[in-house]
Structures are given as structure tokens and as C-alpha cells.
Amino acid sequence: MVVTVSASVFWALMAATVLAAVMVLVLFAERLRARTRDVERRRAEERIRFLSSHDALTGLPNRLSFREHLHKAWERAEAENGRLAVLLLDLDDLSKLNDSMGHEAADRFLVVLAERLAVSARGAELLARAGGDEFAILLAGGQATVAAAAAMALTLVETAALPCEIDGHDVLLGASVGVAVYPGDGPDADALLKNAEIAMYRAVRESPNGFRFFTARMDIELAERRRLEHDLRRALSKDELALHYQPQVDIRSGRIVGFEALARWQRDDGPVPPGRFIPVAEEAGMIGQIGEWVLREACRQARAWDKAGLPPVPVAVNLSPAQFQRNDLAQLVHDILREFELPAGRLELELTEGAVMEDPAAADRLLTALRTMGVRLSIDDFGTGYSSLARLKLFPVNALKIDRSFVTDITTDPNDAAIARAIIHLGHALGLSVVSEGVETEAQLAYLRTEGCDTVQGWLYSPAVPPEQAAELLRKGRF
Ligand code: C2E
Ligand code: CA
Ligand code: CA
Description:
Blueprint: H1 7-53, H2 63-80, E1 84-91, H3 94-101, H4 103-120, E2 126-131, E3 134-140, H5 146-160, E4 164-166, E5 169-171, E6 175-182, H6 189-206, E7 211-213, H7 216-235, E8 241-250, E9 256-267, E10 270-272, H8 274-283, H9 287-307, E11 315-318, H10 321-324, H11 329-339, E12 347-352, H12 353-358, H13 360-373, E13 376-382, H14 389-394, E14 399-402, H15 404-407, H16 414-429, E15 433-437, H17 442-450, E16 455-457, H18 467-476
Parallel strand pairs: 6-7, 9-11, 11-12, 12-13, 13-14, 14-15, 15-16
Antiparallel strand pairs: 1-3, 1-6, 2-3, 4-5, 8-9, 8-16, 9-10
Helix pairs in contact: 3-4, 4-5, 9-11, 11-13
């Protein structure tokens, strides 16, 4: 049989075939594209998953994934009677590096450090970047004995202390490590992590460039501190704060030439010394409020003594460095003096070397503003901090106060005697008057007198006393 196909049917068939082929191609391309999209989506998902569990800069696992890992390791250790150790490393002064060399340089430093830590922590279960300047290391099994954890902590501290060349500079930052171990340091994985953190903060404060193991004592101290902070927040409104006044005595005449106002806190269960609550107030951001209360109360008291007809001597108020950094301090002092109509010369502010030297230019502006108002200024605890003499010479202060630590052994320790003498001569060379604090004995007084010290303050004459007793002393006028 012969099939004859007309030309038109032939072309129609051809067209249909080509169309079908094109459609198959299009479909194929579409499938291919969909598959590529799928791969891309999966890759993006993986990346997101990676980023949510890793630190983008160093590529190390982040805090979240460290915690997850720790939880699993905890369960395993509990089931198998195993051991764990959490080490937290805090870098000192990363923010200073940020400020001085910029974020990019600090980032590069962190990348190098992370690589070095990875090498040092090779035997570890996990190394993670737990925060901006924090790294976390998890040890397990034989690596998690106290001795092995201590050895690792030391290695980490040493690794962090190695110089690192960034932009042609040798960057050197220290680090402090806190360690908590299982079993012992906490009822669950989160407690273990928290306790490693407590130990780390302790190391930062007490052994920078070293490490500390968590102890139950730290936990108790932290709880006490929290209570102190909580109670201190209420102390002002509960009227539990008071000022006591310690006379300052002219070494030649024995006359009272001023008072230092010292804060006292009578908590429900007894007095808390300022050496304990002032640092807590500073760290908890309450010093501004407390310091303002102290300023106001001291000025109110000075004015009240005036009105009672007592001799008009200056009252010295301690300023903490944080108060000093407030840029409205001069305005605040001005307003308070005005509120109580107290002449500026009756107020003296005691600053520490650290506060003044932190930002000398800002300090100079503030001190000049206060001096111009007529407020008196002294440098407290002189000799214990760091002062640039070039700066000191320019600051408009009136007096240097020799720290009590040099006075205590002034008659037995030749070094202390030499330091006290040097401060007296330095002060006089700069045209400043010199006050010695913590004078308890006649022998100390005699030495200070021989060396030409101007004013003394100490238990030999009187401790800080409540305002009524201070008024009595002032009425007598001399010792
Ligand atoms: P500081 O300013 O060096 O005060 C001197 C401290 O030595 C006072 O302790 C005082 O009571 C004590 N002291 C005075 N004479 C003698 C002495 O002869 N022998 C001995 N052993 N001690 C003596 P206090 O009152 O416990 O104050 C401790 C620190 O607390 C002060 O050191 C000051 O830094 C801070 N502080 C006290 N009140 C305030 C305040 O209102 N504001 C701020 N920012 N700090 C304050
Ligand atoms: Ca003082
Ligand atoms: Ca002092």
C-alpha cells in the first residue's frame, strides 16, 4: 500500500513535531531552573542555619550553639558518670583596641586570635565565640579533670597574650579565664555556664592575665552583692544614708580648718562601710544619684552651721570618677551652691588621680570651670594612682592628700617616709597645700610636722563623727 501524503499534511506534521520538541526543551529548562533554585535555596538555608549557630567573623560556633552542645554533653556526662569543664575567656581592653585602631583592625585581631585559640584548644570538645570579647571552651572526659582544665586555662591565657601584628603594630591584649567543672559547680548545664562566667568576672577583677576556678564562695558573694545593690537602691528613699564629718586640723596651730564629709549607710541589719557600698553604687550606675545627695547634704549642713554662727570652714566631698565624667557636674555644683546660698569657697571636691588623668583635656575644662566658680579642689589618695606631673602642674587644684597607706608606717618604713616627704615637697613646689590622712599617732604627726605638711586628718584627733558632734568640735575650734 502506498501512502501518499500531501505537502500540506507533511508540513503540518513537521510543525507539530518541532513544537513538541520545543515544548520538551522548555519544560526541561524549567525543571533545570527549578532544580538550581532548589539548590540555591537549600544553600541559603544552610548558610542561615550556619550563621545562626556560628559567628560570621571567625567562623566559630556562637554562644547559642555552645549552649546547645553543652546541654547535650551534660546529658551524656550525667548518663556516663563523665566529666566536663567550661572555660570562659574574656579579652581585656578590646574596646580600647577598637577605639585606638578602629573596628576593622580589631576584627582582624579577633580572627588571628580565634585561629590561635583553635590550635591551643585542639583537644577540646568545642571552641566557640561566646560574645564580642568572649570565647568559650568545652572540655570533656579526661580533658576535663581539674588539672587538665587548669593547664588548658593557662595555655589559653598565654595564647591570648601573644603579640599580634596588625597594620605594622604589635597588638598586645591580655585575657582572663574563668573555669567551672562538672560534677560540682552547678545543678545543670546553664548553671555551669553561669558559674564559669562568675569565675571569669572574678579573674578579670582579681587576676587579669590569669584564671580562676569557680568556688561556692563566689556564688555567695555574688548573692550578697545583689542584695547590697537591691537594698542600696532603696537606701536613699528610706533615709538610711547619712554624712559624718572628720575634722581637718592645721598642723601648726591645731585649729580645725575644714571637714571631710564621709558617707555612712545604716542598713536594717547594721552599718555597711562606704568602702563596700560606694564601689557597688559605681558599678550599678547609682553613684550619680548618691553623689548628688552627698553634695546637697554637705552643702545644706555647711549652711546650717553658718546659720548657727559657727566658724565658716570648708567641707570636702568625695567625688567618684563616674560623677566626674558627667559633663553637667559644674552646673550641678553651681545649682546646689545657689540652692543653699553657700559661698563656693566653702565647698571642696576631692578627686582621685585616676579620674583626672583618664581624660586630661575634659578634666581640665571641668576643673577650670569649678575653680572659676571658687570651689576648692584636692587630689585624694595621692601617690596610689598614676599622675602625669606635666598635667598635674597645669590643673587648678588647691591641695594634695597623702594617702593613708603611706602614713600608717611612716615612722617604721623608710620607703613610706620617703614617699610622704617627696609628696609634701612636690606639693609645695607646685604651690599646693598638703594634707595627710589617717594620722593615728603622735609619732606620725611629729614626722609630718618636721617635713612641713600643712594639714592632718585622722583618729589622733577625731574619726568622722555625726553632724552634732562635728558642730561641737567646730564650736571649740581647735584641738
Ligand atoms: P577616703 O576618701 O580616702 O576617706 C578616708 C578614709 O579613711 C575614711 O574611711 C576615714 O574614715 C578613714 N580614716 C580617717 N582617719 C583614719 C585613721 O586615722 N585611721 C584609719 N585607719 N582610717 C581613717 P571611710 O569613711 O570608710 O571611707 C572609705 C572610702 O569610701 C573613702 O576613702 C572614699 O573613697 C569613699 N567614700 C566615703 N564617702 C564617700 C562619698 O560620699 N562619695 C564617694 N564617692 N566616696 C566616698
Ligand atoms: Ca577622701
Ligand atoms: Ca584616701
